[in-house]
Amino acid sequence: MRYYATLGPACADPLIIDQMLKAGINGFRVNLSHGHLEDFVPWMDMVRRVAAERDCELLIDLQGPDLRVGELEAPLSLPEGSVLTLGLGGVYCSELLLDALTPGQKLVFDDGQVVAQVASVSPGCAFCVVQQGGVLQSGKGITAPGLKLDLPTLTLEDHNSLALAKHLGVTGVILPFVRSRDDLDNLRDAMYSCGADDLRVFAKVESLEGVEHLAQFVDLADEIIIARGDLASEIPLWLIPRFQKQMGEVCLSNGVPYMVVTQLLESMTDHPLPTRAEMSDIYNAVMDGASSLMLTGETAVGLYPAQAAEYLVKAAQPALEDRPKPTI
């Protein structure tokens, strides 16, 4: 069983990193949706120094074919009923998305923190009415349920990151929003071309298209990541447990390990103790056969990164003891 944490300002301290490693964390993730790989080098160097002689992976999570909000001067408060302008004169987003939007299209921001509907479009911009209010922050993901976009597997920034990865001690690459075998073939080709083809490949499934095609590409990944955040933008929340179990079964039947991520200990972003439901969620994920778990915002920006790491491992241990041992 492996336990991963996401690097961020909350845990970017040698003492905290050491506490997390002692708690059982044996891998760290760098989320490149929030910066260039070079920006994270000091934190990555810190992890390598603190983890010297210890088992510790270093993963980079590429930008990949996802859609995100541009840089904002400050977090944007969006009450229900307010108008959100995307594009010219408003919040930056991909031109590819803007060109595809039509009135009535639903848009989900930051894993459902803000939901809006397109009211009208004009060249270079779209006007949306907020249906579920919240605060929008820079770099947060945008999901357009039901809208098919011809997005590239990798960005130019991703290619640059892959070229640097091995030199910076990276051991694995996470490709977000994997939709088909083509995405993983494209990643493998890019890794081969820059001499990084021996790094582990993690395929993150976080769209309905990815779920539907999982059985077709599961064998191309070293590990599948069941990412429940953006997935919940396309699937009703109450169906997420069903889809998680179904994807886990596909992985297990093909002999491919899988990881469960997103909001495992969300309450610990602001509180020193987890909820009972979070403890049950972790226990059940491990009982179902998950090979690894990952914390995201809990350790990247949360108030209690070391404590979150400790509770993650403690919640998983009883499940490891209880789940049936494989028969020979």
What features would you describe in this structure?
The strands form 3 sheets. This protein has an 8-stranded parallel beta barrel with strand order 1-2-3-12-13-14-15-16, surrounded by 5 helices. It folds into 2 domains: 2-66 and 151-322, TIM Barrel, CATH 3.20.20; 67-143, Beta Barrel (M1 Pyruvate Kinase, Domain 3). It is an alpha/beta fold and 328 residues long. It has 11 helices and 16 strands. The protein starts with a strand and ends in a 6-residue tail after the last helix. Helix content is 34%, strand content 23%. β1 (2-6), α1 (14-23) and β2 form a beta-alpha-beta unit. The longest helix has 18 residues, at 305-322. The radius of gyration is 19 Å and the shape is globular. It has helices at 14-23, 41-50, 95-100, 156-165, 181-193, 208-217, 228-231, 240-253, 276-288, 297-300, 305-322, and strands at 2-6, 27-31, 57-61, 67-68, 76-78, 83-87, 106-109, 114-122, 125-132, 134-136, 141-143, 172-175, 200-205, 223-227, 258-261, 292-294.
Chain-wise SSE layout:
Elements: E1 2-6, H1 14-23, E2 27-31, H2 41-50, E3 57-61, E4 67-68, E5 76-78, E6 83-87, H3 95-100, E7 106-109, E8 114-122, E9 125-132, E10 134-136, E11 141-143, H4 156-165, E12 172-175, H5 181-193, E13 200-205, H6 208-217, E14 223-227, H7 228-231, H8 240-253, E15 258-261, H9 276-288, E16 292-294, H10 297-300, H11 305-322
Parallel strand pairs: 1-2, 1-16, 2-3, 3-12, 12-13, 13-14, 14-15, 15-16
Antiparallel strand pairs: 4-11, 5-10, 6-9, 7-8, 7-11, 8-9
Helix pairs in contact: 1-11, 9-11
